[in-house]
Specification:
The protein is mostly beta strands. Helix content is about 5%, strand content about 50%. A hairpin with a 6-residue loop joins strand 1 and strand 2. The two termini are about 25 Å apart.
Length: about 160
């Protein structure tokens, strides 16, 4: 299930960015973000989450996913964005991060999208580049491409 993106030389700062063939596109606030579809196991409606004592603030708790305990991270809180109460559009994206399964909460999921290397720019120098692999350009839309390992990995 694990796929490798192609490394391409980005325009601008000369940083390498990873262009994924297929991305899952989701919203946080009014912005679009993308993550490699090869890491996504499933998308679930928001449901009950069991809180875990002394967990980091962005870890909302755990769910039982067909007998496996899966930690759930509020992606907005992890990215230091304002959080809000879940709505009917709120989803949990369950992803494979290395050997671990992690769920992350997003405002909504919109589509699966294919980007060519020409549609991906490196992240601007002023951004937290360790979390961002690039910026996808689709017409007038900009999609921030996230590195899920760095956003949701064990060290976080």
């Amino acid at each position: 299930m694990k796929g490798q993106g192609k490394k391409i030389e980005g325009k601008g700062a000369g940083a390498e960015v990873e262009a994924q063939e297929h991305l899952i596109v989701f919203r946080l606030e009014n912005e679009e973000y993308g993550a490699p579809i090869t890491q996504v196991r499933e998308i679930r409606r928001m449901g009950p989450i069991t809180p875990m004592p002394k967990a980091p603030p962005a870890v909302k708790g755990v769910i039982n996913l067909r007998g496996k305990i899966v930690p759930i991270v509020d992606l907005k809180q992890r990215l230091e964005m304002p959080t809000q109460e879940p709505t009917s559009s709120t989803r949990i994206v369950v992803a494979e991060i290395g050997e671990d399964t992690v769920g992350f909460i997003v405002d909504s999921v919109s589509e699966v999208l294919q980007l060519s290397p020409e549609e991906v720019e490196p992240p601007p120098e002023v951004t937290r580049q360790e979390h961002i692999t690039g910026i996808g350009k689709v017409g007038e839309r900009l999609i921030v491409l996230l590195n899920l390992e760095r956003v949701l990995g064990e060290d976080q």
